[in-house]
UniProtKB/TrEMBL annotation:
Cited InterPro entries: Fe-S_cluster_ET (IPR051269)
Cross-referenced SUPFAM superfamilies: 4Fe-4S ferredoxins
Cofactor(s) in the UniProt record: [3Fe-4S] cluster
Name of protein: Ferredoxin
Pfam families per UniProt: Fer4_13
Keyword field: 3Fe-4S, Electron transport, Iron, Iron-sulfur, Metal-binding, Transport
Region span, Disordered: 61-81
Top-rank lineage group of the source organism: Bacteria
GO molecular function annotation: 3 iron, 4 sulfur cluster binding; metal ion binding
Compositional bias ranges of the Low complexity kind: 61-75
Signal peptide as annotated in the record: none
């Protein structure tokens, strides 16, 4: 599964870091760190993180289980506050 976070959209709400802490982390108050190649066992947490992003900054390829579909972040992002 491949993750992309649009750091220009990210406002640092940290919903993704709360919902998938093994994948997303805030560094300081403004910088989001994340693993762009998340492990398969993180699928459910990633789906929640994507859905929780208030600014829809997270894109996850293969999140729906079809192997290549894209789920645009509904909410879950963090990184810039």
């Amino acid at each position: 599964m491949r993750l992309v976070v649009d750091l220009n959209k990210c406002q640092g709400y940290a919903q993704c870091a709360f919902l998938a802490p093994d994948v997303f982390a805030l560094h300081g108050e403004e910088a989001l760190l994340y693993d762009p190649r998340a492990a398969e066992e993180q699928r459910e947490r990633l789906a929640r993180a994507v859905a929780a992003c208030p600014v829809q900054a997270i894109t996850a390829d293969g999140l729906d289980g079809a192997g290549g579909a894209t789920a645009e972040a509904g909410q879950g992002e963090s990184g810039g506050r």
